[in-house]
Amino acid sequence: MFSYRDSCEGDVHVDVAFTDSTVDLQELRPGLATELPRVEEACGVRFARLHQVHGADVVPVDEPGPPPLEDVPTGDALVTATRGVGLMIRVADCVPVLLADPGAGVIGAVHAGRQGVALDVVGHAVDRMRDAGATAIVGWIGPHVCGGCYEVPDALRTEVAALVPSTWAQTTWGTPSLDLGAGVRSQLVAAGVRVTEVGRCTREDAGLHSYRRDGADAGRFAGLVWMS
């Protein structure tokens, strides 16, 4: 169910996890049912979620429990200072980022794809957390497609790397690529966040969902953060 779990302590207890279970908001097709209810039962919390659109909008969450599917907000990051609220980001190659300040009781979750990295969505999320009182933020970068696998046209590599130089990369077969994880790490470090990198490339690891590897057949796994 979980490929990685960790926790940290302050005035509140914060748990973080990355799943290897499928956590789509609804069943994609016969044989690929979402395991979200089982994941929520194991964590003991319901998770707020987003319709993710590869942007930089940060959505504040004040109430525990997710809204009905038709009312799920649009954005690419969630932030809350409310205990009993869980935050969930779903990915299948993009970079899932979990953030917490257990001393201040503020958490965040970020979906950072190519466009989100170029727009510094993680920086926007950190700013919103600080607006909510966070001062000492720690972050976890979850499994994502690595720079050795994320092939892109040379012009696109040049465009993104002009904004985030650490994303410039080359595939293992010698073509232009982007290292989104390196880009996210550089942005978090610049924002004063202490970073833990979980590792694992989604395209190379058959135990994780990957759109680059599986196309439309790919499900989504989750990055989860919650506090008690």
Question: Layout of helices and strands, plus pairs?
Answer:
Blueprint: E1 2-9, E2 13-19, H1 36-43, E3 47-48, E4 58-60, E5 77-80, E6 86-91, E7 95-101, E8 106-112, H2 114-118, H3 121-131, E9 138-141, H4 154-163, E10 168-170, E11 176-178, H5 180-190, E12 194-197, H6 211-214, E13 221-227
Parallel strand pairs: 3-6, 4-5, 9-12
Antiparallel strand pairs: 1-2, 2-13, 5-8, 6-13, 7-8, 7-9, 10-11
Key structural traits:
single chain, 228 residues, alpha+beta, CNF1/YfiH-like putative cysteine hydrolases, five-stranded mixed beta sheet, 21% helix, 29% strand, transferase
Classified in CATH, the superfamily is CNF1/YfiH-like putative cysteine hydrolases
| End-to-end Cα distance | 21 Å
CATH architecture: 4-Layer Sandwich
Shape: globular
Helix content: 10-25%
* Poorly predicted tracts of residues: none
- Order of strands in the sheet with the most strands? 4-5-8-7-9-12
Could you say how many structural domains there are in total? 1
Radius of gyration (CA) equals 16 Å
Q: Beta-strand percentage? A: 25-35%
Task: Please count the helical segments.
Answer: 6
Instruction: Give the beta-strand count.
Output: 13
Q: How is the biggest beta sheet arranged?
A: 6 strands, mixed
H/E element string?
EEHEEEEEEHHEHEEHEHE
Overall average pLDDT: 92
Q: Just give the CATH class.
A: Alpha Beta
Derived from helix and strand composition plus strand pairing, the structural class reads alpha+beta
What is the CATH T-level topology? CNF1/YfiH-like putative cysteine hydrolases
Pfam family, one: Cu-oxidase_4
Keywords: Copper, Hydrolase, Metal-binding, Transferase, Zinc
Organism: Nocardioides ginsengisegetis
GO molecular function: copper ion binding; hydrolase activity; S-methyl-5-thioadenosine phosphorylase activity
